[in-house]
Amino acid sequence: MTCELSTEIYPMRLQKFLSRAGVASRRGSEDLMTAGRVSVNQEVVRELGSKVDPKVDIVTVDGRVVSLADSHTYIMLNKPVGVLTTMDDPHGRSTVASLVADADQSALFPVGRLDKDTSGLLLFTTDGDLAYRILHPKFKLFKTYEVVVQGTLGDSALDALRQGIQLKDGITAPAKADYADGVLTLQIREGRNRQVRRMCKAVGHPVERLHRTQLGSLSLDSLASATWRHLAKDELAVLRQSTAQENC
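RESULT FIELD:
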């Protein structure tokens, strides 16, 4: 959906301004700044604590003037297997950009990513501030997956997933795990690279099929593969509320 922006307090941090303008996520905006690609009133600004007043300052990225949009767009895609989560691929491979092209929003970007062999719920927006909150670990937004693994999961493997798995980049947070009719339903709050696949492999059951069904309060429901829809107002309201403060 397209929603009106809330009232902002100015001046605001430059990286927040860039993310709200849909240029990139906050992390991506910081990278643009440190690379010397952002200017305020024709002066390059690299200091991350810098502030800007959009009502009087002129901000440019690579020479292009950037301004806050009057509204933002929020859409949900049911990503199919075999498609890359990127808006551009130099090698000409299939990307999610082609699946949301008719959304007619040049500033749309995916919130996080699903790897090429993973299907399911992928959120797109032009709202970098909300994207930042969804992705930041401190908000601990649940991501729910349906997983088909090799072999049959036993109680010991389920208990290990629930308690936390030791991976090369540290132990995972406790997950919610249920297994029925050959399908593992796994809920995690983290977003490490290929985390679900690594967790399942660590308990001796490599993933055969991986599908994300929920992101926080958002659910795919009956949305067909390779199709998208705008978020409803109530969906967006609940999502905003769930990322309004840190979860314990």
